[in-house]
Amino acid sequence: MIKGILHLLPTSEILAQEAAKFIQQRITDTLQQKKRCSISLSGGNTPRKLYQVLASEPYLSSIPWNQIDFFWGDERCVPPDHPDSDYLMAKETMLDAITSRWQPGIYRIETEHSPAEAAARYEKTLREYFSDSSSGFDILLLGMGEDGHTASLFPFTQALHETKRWVVENYVPKLQAWRITLTAHFLNRAVTTMILVSGTNKKKVFTFIQTPNASPEAFPVLTIQPASGELHWFVDKDAFSENVSG
């Protein structure tokens, strides 16, 4: 069953607007406590709309992007200029606009290397940035697939069992492809986690993960249970069902 705070929004467009407001406030709160704010980005259509909002006014001018460090929760094993790249999607929808006026930190997963080396390099990057081994992202953005996956933690894959590494190469049999993904072991260190869910194609799985029968192995989004941080679900009405039975 899901845990956390539910934000139910009427449309995906309003979801993106409300998520942007929420992020701005969390950035403000974070920067009152320290000099930089770390944000982990996600791929997918719902985050895409959010990025477009953040790249427009008032957010483009009012958020102190120079104090933001961007990371990614997962990546496809394709070059950074490939149409399937999560980095490229974020770059085109948000980062290009931000970097035209600001200088944020950008820490992408280096998929020019083999899956194993790319994972090892990103783990090194994260461990150097988060020198306090108990800390994690200030803001973690995640989506959810129709099969209940999040980041590149897919159902019944090896990455779900990792309890030491922060980043792994994860082979996904149904895609016949490797992915680089952060593990739940590290993702659950985040201060604020936001899971964005929209669209009628997500309704079936969102309904099922609210029942007692849903297991994290079959629905990896359920592995996201922050150790001490907050978990917020931003869900539009197309994906939401009031008729949940377990």
TrEMBL record:
Entry keyword annotation includes Hydrolase: yes
Glucosamine/galactosamine-6-phosphate isomerase domain location: 11-233
GO MF terms, alphabetically ordered: 6-phosphogluconolactonase activity
EC number: 3.1.1.31
Keyword line: Hydrolase
Reactions performed catalytically: 6-phospho-D-glucono-1,5-lactone + H2O = 6-phospho-D-gluconate + H(+)
Family matches, as NCBIfam families: pgl
Protein's UniProt name: 6-phosphogluconolactonase
Gene that encodes it: pgl
